Amino acid sequence: MTPELLVKLSLLVLFLPLFSFIVLVFFGKRLSRQGDWFGTSILFITLAFSSIILYSKLTSFPEPINFNFLWVDFGNVPLLGTLKITLGLVLDNLSAIMLVVVGIVSALVHLFSIGYMHGDVRYSRYFAYLGVFTFSMFMIVLTNNFFTMYVGWELVGLSSYLLIGHWYEKKSASNAAMKAFIVNRVGDIGMFAGILILFYTFKTFGFNEIFSAIGSGKIPMESEGWLTASGILIFCGAIGKSAQFPLHVWLPDAMEGPTPVSALIHAATMVAAGVYLVARTYPIMTADTLMVIAYIGAITAFISATIAIAQNDIKKVLAYSTISQLGYMVMGLGVGAYTAGFFHLTTHAMFKAGLFLGSGSVIHAMHNALHHQKDHHTDPQDIRNMGGLGKKMKITFITFLIYTLAISGVPFTSGFLSKDEILAGTLAYGGLTGHYLIPIVGFFVAGLTAFYMFRLVILTFLGAPVDSQRLEHVHESPKTMTIPLIIFAVFSFFIFFSFNPFGASSGWFFHAIERPEAVVPIAVQAANNVTFEEALHHSHTPAMILSLIVAGIGILLAYATYKWKKINADAVAEKLNPLYKFLLNKWYFDELYDKMVIGATLSFTKILRWFDNNIIDGIVNGSAGWTKAIVFGYTDHRKNTRYSSLIFILFGTLLSILVAFFTGQWFWVQGAIGTAIIMALLSGALSFFFFWSGAGGFDKHVVDGLVNGIAYVSGFFGLIFRKFQTGRVQTYIVFVLFGVMVLFYIFR
Amino acid sequence: MSNLLTYIIFLPLVGGILIFFYNREKIRAIKVFGIAISVLTFILSLFLYFGFDAANPGIQFQHKVLWISGLNISYNVGVDGLSLLLVMLTTFLTPIALLSSWKSIEKRVKEYTIMMLFLEVGMLGVFSSLDMFLFYIFWEAMLIPMYFIIGIWGGGNRIYAAIKFFIYTMFGSLLMLIAIIWLGYYASTQPNGQFTTDLLQLYSIGPTIPLAIQSWMFLAFTLSFAIKVPLFPFHTWLPDAHVEAPTAGSVILAGVLLKMGTYGLLRFSIPLFPQATLEFMPYIAGLAVIGIIYGALVSMVQTDIKKLVAYSSVSHLGFVVLGIFALTEEGIQGAIIQMVNHGLSTGALFLIVGMIYERRHTREISEFGGLAKVMPIFSTIFMIVSLSSIGLPGLNGFIGEFLILLGAFRSPYMSQWFTIFAATGVIFAAVYLLWVYQRVIFGNITNPLNQNLLDLSKREIAVLVPVLVFIVWIGIYPNTFLKQSASTTKQIVTIATQKPLPRLVTTEQSVKPENTQGK
User: Mutation test of the interface with chain A: which of B431, B501, B519, choosing the one with the most A Cβ atoms within 10 A?
Assistant: First the structure.
């Protein structure tokens, strides 16, 4: 294995899914089984390659491998020196791990979809879109510069748009797709502005080049404030893509897409791209930027966890839980627990993809059962219509339970490891900076997570079935769907990440991913690695104990409420009605944005439309009207006027030719001006004469002369042509030749 | 082949004259002949493209014949990196426009084909004239066929739109004519000077004009071009003209005619009057930014698809003007490629609108919905073209917008806020296009009239596919085209920034230390 070979392999990994997309889009319907096997096997090949890459990267190549090629060359630019846009990829441990994460989830989702999407109207199109998504996601993962990062960023947005809108016959689906695209674009513009600032300062898009330039003391506008600003602007991209407050509103709606898509894009990979972006650009983040990031993450985690409690749609609960966990990761990165944040991304990708696929399996079963009952009104996604499914769907239930344990942070799961590290990080951050609100939110949300996840499990799988007859028709899903569930469940155990179930820091992951040193000036740096590690060391044990306690409380409360019925959930909701309504309606974010942003924009655009039609166009039409009014008066007699205006035009032309002849060539210019003056005087005098003498009225003879003059020119030609409409082309030619000769004579 | 350019310009004229001899009943033969001539023109222009030396910033394929000796006016044509791509765009879009009107134009096919070919002559002439008098003749001559195309083959309110289009443009160009004459006169007042309209000579004379007079000259030229672009607030002829024009007319109008304005800015306003350019730059860039946002917002609430696309042109051309007046290489390069992009994307959008108009004879958005079901190929192409117009990476629109914003942000002459505001236009573009796409294509078919619509025919696919090829090509590897205009762009930037302004000096100073470090 050489670095070149690794680069080639990663290029293969990048472009194979694109190849799958192209084949499926153009020939998908002609392939057997609409090409599902093609897309899926390509993805498994990619997964194999990325595993090889990860393995050899970890064992043989500790240094990052860069690969560049020239894309656009501006050459030597004034004031700037040579300006080129080079594109390229980087293979370091971060990207290698991410490759495998994306590869696993994407391959398994492909497999799962074979069962889930069976018989879909646009089956091959669906697989094609999965391919283009995977391609763009790999682009984000592998890029070594902001430019291709942005390209991949937009492309995953597109694939997300296409897949959310897969069932575009539903208005809600196409609305959700559009919402996702546009809300993401808002974040992207911030990111774009950040990239512009960096490019403006450093004349390059490359991460390494930018880092080393900042390291050598060059910063935007020579101001640390701008550096912070550009960091926050870059983070705006993450706010959009990773559904952070205040742009989180698109993700719950995105659940309109097929459930495997939710697992792949809206839970495991694309939404984690924001976290990956922050991890990638970590060295340029100043202490202030990181603080903003930490708070945004904490706010997001809190808001969405509270909303998740009150939701009844199985996918909506998972969606808000995803937002909340993404908030966790972002918060982790913000407080300086870099490795923990990225670690949580990895572990979360596995169990959250599993949770979504599990919910897909449930929905699939519910859907079939309801179909069997010929019931088209009951919502197959509403957990209030479920209950007791665990008995009928053993594999789905057990795997779902494992994921839930992982997300709740129960020991021996991967989620315990990563969540614990983040919480320890927040505690350390609190101790170092005094921002204790962040760890408080962190632990509180951990408890909430355990509560709403167990609520989900209990209502769905345990307890008495809502409709026992329906339960009869519920069956376990086919193997293509259960195998991915089992694999994801296996990956939710600690053993794959660290041999010590109570601490990840000794595992391979923490060795592979180390927090990069900040390159920003010392004055604006966050606590450096040594200080942070020191603080972290002290907060580890308290964090673990605390997190175990809050998770335990959350699980207990869930059991007490929904299983043992010691607490009456409805009574509590009744008692706290305003709060319950507030949570049920998702803090009224959608309503707020509807009124404030969309409503305001639309009314503004309507004002603009009026302005355009009446003011701007009004000035144009008005000036035409005024011209008419001033010259001819208001009377508008359109008939029998053509001849008289023609006389003026003919007269003027003749005059100008005469003047040109008599004054010599040079004075042609003056001749033209002179003609214009003479004509103006003449028509003025004539109009004066006619107007005042009242002899028939001037307007009767010359109407629209100035404004519509050209119409008369054409009319004039029309008249001439009518005379010479002999039907013979030769006549025309003769006249053309004659005209040319005349002109030639004049300007000879 | 030394006179290749002349052959290219006048081949359509010859073709048009030959069509005069056709029997007007032989509609099919006339159409085929017209398309053949335009395709032949395109093929000829390929020789131009491949014979072009990208490293040479100057004029190539020049053909100069003295025309009016006393006034020193000559027939003088040539192309450089700036005009080459636009000449190619013209020869590329004309056959497409002709092919697209195969079915939609039924009356006076003979005159129509002639007009389209004459129009091409005018456009090619505008892009290759190196003599201002010649330029003016082509500029005005081109109006006449367009006037007739809108006025004869247009929609219900066509006369109003045609006259408005004509008079509005004419008004602007009269000012330009005065400025041209004045320039020629100014040249004659120079020591050993004589009256001239030779652009290349005036390039060296223009920048010596005192600023006060230069400003008037600049404004006269720029107003004329601004109307053509159209720059906010001179845009109202555009929606009317577009809505009333037949599909092919709209394609040419959006694809090529609007570019004559931005081309004029780059060819005349900036290099002839560099100091005045710097004076007025903030105002024009400001109008461009207003246009970007204004055009996008107004198009959001249109109920007629064609009008929506027309207003989106105001927004897109705003980007082009912003890039031009950034006076940086990326900005101008971006502007040039964006001119091509807009010609392709918006041209394709008009073709698409035309295709559903031919089927339903309405362009009201509310009349449609769920077309994906009955017209899958159409929907796919519509999606790609919309995404290109939205500026999705991987497709052409992104390249232009990206370079323009990059150039504008880096520009030492304008505030960075211009760029930030302009960038929001990218969001609005997504809103209006995705929204119209949703309302037309997604959902279920609610209107029974849409139930039996036919998907695109082979001819219609043939019309759109060439455009799509370039949409993807430019999006993935723009260097093919960018490199053609690179050296000319550099020259324009050098000319435009000859006279340093205070702000420019500070930038130079801040760059210097870096250079010494590099050594």
Answer: B431
CB contact at 8 A, A293 and A383: no
- The distance of A68 to chain B (nearest Cα, Å) reads 15
Q: Do A158 and B370 touch (CB under 8 A)?
A: no
Report the C-alpha gap between A657 and B312 in whole angstroms: 45
Rounded CA separation B211/A665 (Å) = 30
Structural tokens at position A345: 């991304």
Amino acid at B430: A
For residue A428, which amino acid is it? A
The H or E element containing residue A66 is strand A65-77
pTM: 0.83
Identify the three-state secondary structure at position A272: helix
How far is Cα B273 from Cα B214, in angstroms, rounded to an integer?
6
CA distance A746 to A78: 49
Binary contact (A181, B426; C-beta < 8 A): no
Q: Which amino acid does the sequence have at A703?
A: V
Report yes or no for ipTM above 0.90: no
- CA nearest neighbour of A729 among B275, B17, B432: B17
Q: Which of A620, A613, A610, A628 is nearest to B234 (CA)?
A: A620
Partner B contacted by A172 (CB < 8 A):
no
Segment B495-507, tens digit of pLDDT:
887 754 333 333 3
* Dihedral pair phi/psi, residue A205, rounded to 5°: -100, -10
pLDDT at B170 over 60: yes
Tokens of A288: 């202030």
Contact across the interface for A155 and B300, Cβ inside 8 Å:
no
Q: SS3 string of A584-622? A: HCHHHHHHHHHHHHHHHHHHHHHHHHHHHHHHHHHHHHH
User: Does B494 sit within 8 Å of A78, measured CB to CB?
Assistant: yes
In B, residues 85-144, which contact A (CB 8 Å cutoff)?
none
Q: Rounded to an integer, what distance in angstroms lies between the CA atom of residue A242 and that of residue B113?
A: 54
Q: What is the DSSP letter of B255?
A: I
Quote the minimal CA–CA distance from B83 to chain A in Å.
19
Q: What is the pLDDT of residue B499?
A: 58
CA distance B450 to B88: 37
Helix (H, G, I), strand (E, B) or coil at A246: coil
Coil, strand or helix: which one is A313? strand
- C-alpha pair distances (Å), A676 with each of A254, A585, A673, B216, B496: 67, 73, 5, 21, 36
Tell me if A747 sits within 8 A of B74, measured CB to CB.
no
The 10s digit of each residue's pLDDT in B438-480 is 989 888 888 888 888 888 888 889 999 999 999 999 988 888 8
pLDDT-derived band at B336 (thresholds 50, 70, 90) equals very high
What token pair was written down for A214?
């900042």
Distance CA A504, CA A339 (A): 10
Chain B residues near residue A199 by CB distance under 8 angstroms: 406, 409-410
Show the low-confidence residues of chain A (pLDDT under 50): 629-649, 664-671, 687-707
Residue A499 neighbours by CB distance under 10 Å? 12
Helix (H, G, I), strand (E, B) or coil at B304: strand
A window 652-681, beta carbon within 8 A of B: 665-666, 668-669
Number of Cβ within 10 Å of residue B349's Cβ equals 28
Look at the block and give the residue holding tokens 């698409």: B352
Contact B297 A616 (CB under 8 A): no
Angle, alpha carbons B231-B235-B241 (nearest 5°): 135
Count CB atoms within 10 A of the CB of residue B207: 19
* Per-residue pLDDT reduced to its tens digit, B131-157: 998 999 899 888 888 888 888 888 888
Tell me which residue has tokens 């573009």.
B429
Residue A704 has phi, psi (to 5 degrees) of 60, 20
